[in-house]
Amino acid sequence: MAPRTVEVLDRSDMVGKMTGMLTLRPGATAIVTVDMHRGHLDPEVATMPAAAEDCERVIANAREVLDIARGHGMAVIHVVLVYRKIPGLGSEGMTAPFWAAMSEITDEENRLTLGRKSTVNDHNIEGSPGTEIIPELYRDTDYVIDNKKRLDCFMGTDLEMLLENVGAENVCLMGINTNTCVLNTAFTAHNKNYATVVLSDCVASMYGDDLHEFGLQNVMRCLGWVLDNEQFREKVEEGRKSNN
């Protein structure tokens, strides 16, 4: 089926008003990094790599945000997908029919990521380098959840309990991919009544710029806020002052 060309609806006025209404008090805000591991962001070992330029951009911008967050005492939570190998099955990801079918395709032009390797069956297997969080983004004071199995960071993990334990009312998301794991997690955070933010400078999609933009538009127009790094800094500073 040929794709239909559509114009992106301009909701900038509404988005601007909504941004003005957002408050991010540091003590009530948690940063959740979504699959910011070498399996996506280190081209040397990645089994599902983002574009090299996106890897550099996302890592640099994420480091800036995380430094701001830690400096204000915010909880930083890294959620990482890790699969086991099951005899007779392969990766645990192979239980998903779409991924199992995709694994049968061998030509690069029809893989998940156009012109780049992208194999669910070999992606982030337990103990592999791909499961390692990008070193520049991790500190000993951070929290790590490493049993994510699907696109939603809440599904099958203790993310919700951890957010409750650190007193989070606002959830700020960054990571890979904008239109899959970040978007799925944003929907669940919204459904659980968190004020949900996606940090636009700190996300990318290995599926292409069109789906990256789709993910951001879907969040900002339907379920949460999209902030760049400067807006995030300003909101955190405003929230800090309002809490004094």
Query: What is the multimeric organization of the chains shown?
Result: single chain
Tally of structural domains: 1
Strand content: 15-25%
Structural class: alpha/beta
CATH architecture: 3-Layer(aba) Sandwich
Our Rg estimate from Cα atoms comes to: 18 Å
Chart the SSEs and their pairings:
Layout: H1 12-21, E1 29-34, H2 38-41, H3 52-71, E2 75-81, E3 85-86, E4 90-91, H4 97-102, E5 143-148, H5 159-165, E6 170-176, H6 178-191, E7 195-204, H7 209-222, E8 225-227, H8 229-242
Parallel strand pairs: 1-2, 1-6, 2-5, 6-7, 7-8
Antiparallel strand pairs: 3-4
Throw out a few tags for this protein.
8 helices; 244 residues; Rossmann fold; 18% strand; 36% helix; two-stranded antiparallel ribbon
How would you sum up this structure in a few lines?
The chain has eight helices and eight strands. It is an alpha/beta fold and 244 residues long.
Describe this structure as you would to a colleague.
The protein is built from 8 helices and 8 strands, in the order H-E-H-H-E-E-E-H-E-H-E-H-E-H-E-H. It is α/β, with parallel strands linked by helices and 244 residues long. The protein has helices at residues 12-21, 38-41, 52-71, 97-102, 159-165, 178-191, 209-222, 229-242; strands at residues 29-34, 75-81, 85-86, 90-91, 143-148, 170-176, 195-204, 225-227. Helix 3 runs parallel beside helix 8. It has a single domain (12-81, 125-242), classed as Isochorismatase-like (Rossmann fold), CATH 3.40.50.850.
